[in-house]
Amino acid sequence: MTQQRVTIPQTDLDVFPLNLGTNTFGWTADKPTAHRILDAYCDAGGNFLDTADTYPHWAPNAVGGESEAVIGSWLARQPRDRVVVATKVRDFPQAPQTLDYLQSQVKESLRRLQADYIDLYYGHFDNTEVPIADQARAFDELVTAGHIRYIGLSNYSPDRMREWFRVARKENLALPVAIQPHYNLVRRADYENTYRAVAEENNLAVFPYFGLAAGFLTGKYRTEADLETERKNHVSEYFNADGLRVVDQLVEVAQHHQVQPASVALAWLLARGVTAPIASARTVEQLPALLEATTLQLSDEEVRLLTEASEIFA
């Protein structure tokens, strides 16, 4: 596997063009399995992890923070600079996002991660009751204190993102360097019609979540019977004629290259200018298909066919 890296604009961070999602850690991947996934990912050249302080709070018997703790138990025996760690603060819009709140939460994340700093720290969801200026100042304080190196935004509206940049530039605060939009072949409109412009205007890295549409774009879900899994609620919204048409095109391109459909779906995102898509694995055996995307060269014609097949979602 190539050791290729891409630089996050406005930073000194060089990252692998596949951002390993770890929302499975503490849920469908227990600690030993997660450690094997992390070892295999890094051995293949990977160095970029994505988590959040509440992952996986939705899992049975989970309270949130388990993913960070699993990463921390692995990170404790690694050189800290082996990986770039991105995490997010609270996925509840009502979270206050005040300085006191953020300071308490980042310290909890650092404790679980067993780390002295976080490379990239996202505002996970906006609390529209808290002025953007207050949020921008609070995140800037975390940078100044050395708790975090860089700021990212996820699930903020484009207008609120633009306001953040306006305030930060006016007050000489630390600027966000990345956004994390929801973007894939069957979820195109939000990013392509709104967030892409924000990224281009501000020279931001783009790390989309649900790059495989919660597994739908792996090609595993072709019949109603295939939906009878623990991920049914996550993929059922895509399971229709339009979604299956996209999967059919993915499978055709994948067969031509002798790779998995997941590799093609992620390679399409890279071909569309994404910095590094986020994708998760619950077993080591799922990793090769994800990694393959970073070296898979789709032709212009293949990109066009996939783009046309998914145009209804744009």
TrEMBL record:
What PROSITE patterns does the annotation carry? ALDOKETO_REDUCTASE_2
CDD domains documented for this protein: AKR_AKR9C1
Q: Which GO terms describe its cellular component?
A: cytosol
The record lists the organism as: Auritidibacter ignavus
> GO molecular function terms here?
oxidoreductase activity
Q: What is the lineage of its organism?
A: Bacteria, Bacillati, Actinomycetota, Actinomycetes, Micrococcales
Recorded protein name is Aldo/keto reductase
Checking Gene3D superfamilies in the record gives: NADP-dependent oxidoreductase domain
Query: Could you tell me which InterPro entries the record lists for this protein?
Result: AKR (IPR020471), AKR_Detox_Biosynth (IPR050523), Aldo/ket_reductase_CS (IPR018170), NAD(P)_OxRdtase_dom_sf (IPR036812), NADP_OxRdtase_dom (IPR023210)
A Pfam family name for this chain? Aldo_ket_red
